[in-house]
Amino acid sequence: MQNSENEGVIVLGATPIGNLSDASPRLKEIMLSADIIAAEDTRNFHHLANALGLKISARVMSLHEHNEAHKLSEVLELAKAGSTILVVSDAGMPAVSDPGYPLVAAALDEGIRVTAVPGPSAVLTALALSGLPTGRFTFEGFLPRKAGERRKRLDALLHEERTMVFFEAPHRVADFLEAAIEAFGADRQAAVARELTKKFEEVRRDSLGELHRWALGGLRGEIVVVVSGAPEPVAASIEDLLPKVAELVAAGTRMKQAVADVAEQFGVKKRDLYEAVLAERKVSEI
């Protein structure tokens, strides 16, 4: 069903992350009406269509992380020719830790219309069920498999105040949680969600330390880990900073410069700190 006036469109379709009943009516409609369906795994797409009782007449082509760069030009040309192209991943919304982003970016550069059929999302489902703050969050996806690279990424998130959402393979969850403990501490609150929307859905909420002990027993299924953000830093009092100024002065730094350096480091007003230093000196001279 080509669009009028030869205007093609690329549609990102969110597919169920577990429960097939979560397939929206709009998703079913576009699956039946699209000219081309670009699927992360064509076998999985046909399985979904059969499970939904849909007879697909569109051409189904593969579009995954290993061939996306080579298929971009073909998909773009089809859209330019007026085709409606439905893009689906194996589960959830395409382009979110799944194929799709390079295609969307290229299509927008070419002036091709891109829209979406929203629906299931493992990221948002796990976040909502985690019991952790949801007002601000960051999605980190899959971290590197190598321990050193994974630790580097986690260290960079040490002061992240937003709730953090990660994807992880079931056989690496214990290693991930161990690395998270090293980076954030065993007491940081977190949640591990598995098999979301499926029969054996489970969300375990606890400290990273307790979750790590639990995960050592082995996990199965699709995993999402949600970690609370860093607590807001406690503002240092002026009195607590006086010894730091004294240390710098004793090491040869001029007092005004020492006050400026400490005030900037700890986020206090330079004038307030300077007046406190002078007041302490007067007391010591009495």
Automatic annotation (TrEMBL):
Its EC number is 2.1.1.198. It is found in: Cytoplasm. Residues 15-211 form the Tetrapyrrole methylase domain. Residues 247-280 form the RsmI HTH domain. One of its GO terms (molecular function) is methyltransferase activity. One of its GO terms (biological process) is methylation. It comes from the Bacteria. It is an enzyme of class 2 (transferase). InterPro entries: 4pyrrol_Mease, 4pyrrol_Methylase_sf, 4pyrrole_Mease_sub1, 4pyrrole_Mease_sub2, rRNA_ssu_MeTfrase_I, RsmI_HTH, SAM_MeTrfase_RsmI_CS. It catalyses: cytidine(1402) in 16S rRNA + S-adenosyl-L-methionine = 2'-O-methylcytidine(1402) in 16S rRNA + S-adenosyl-L-homocysteine + H(+). Keywords: Cytoplasm, Methyltransferase, rRNA processing, S-adenosyl-L-methionine, Transferase. It holds the Pfam family TP_methylase. CDD domains: RsmI. Catalyzes the 2'-O-methylation of the ribose of cytidine 1402 (C1402) in 16S rRNA. Belongs to the methyltransferase superfamily. RsmI family. This is Ribosomal RNA small subunit methyltransferase I. It comes from Glutamicibacter protophormiae. The gene is rsmI.
